[in-house]
Amino acid sequence: MQKIIATFLFAILCIFVSAQSSVHYDVEPAITKIQNDYVAKWGQIGKIDGYRIQILAVTGTNSKGQAESAKAIFEGQFPEIPAYITYVEPYFRIRIGNFYSRLEAYKTLLEIQWQYPNAYIIPDKIDYSDN
Predict the structure, then answer these.
(1) From residue 72, how far is each of 13, 35, 89, 98, 126 by CA, in Å?
(2) What's the pLDDT at 131?
C-alpha cells in the first residue's frame, strides 16, 4: 500500500513540475506600452549625475596632443574602463569610468592608483546604460 501511495505522489509531483515549466503570462497591452515608454525615455536622457576619476589635466602648448597620447596609453593599460577627453579652458582633462556611486569609483581608483598616483574622484555627468 505504501508503494502505491508513494508512486501516486511521485506521479502528482511529476505532473506539477511539468506544469510549472510551461507557464504563460498574459500581459496587458497598456503595461507593455508603459514599459516601452520607460525604456525609450531613459534612452533619451543619455547623461545622469554620477562620478568619474580624473587622471590628468594639461594646459599649454600641445596640450591636446598630450591628452590624446595619455588617453591612448590609459586605454592600452585598462581597456575595460572607458576614457574621455574634455576641454574646459584652459585645461584638457582625461576622466575615466561611468560610476553611479562614489564607492564604485573608489574601487577603480584603488586599481589604477599605482599607475596614476595623482588621480582623484570627481562628480560628473556620466553616460546612462541599462547594465
Answers:
(1) 60, 39, 22, 18, 20
(2) 44
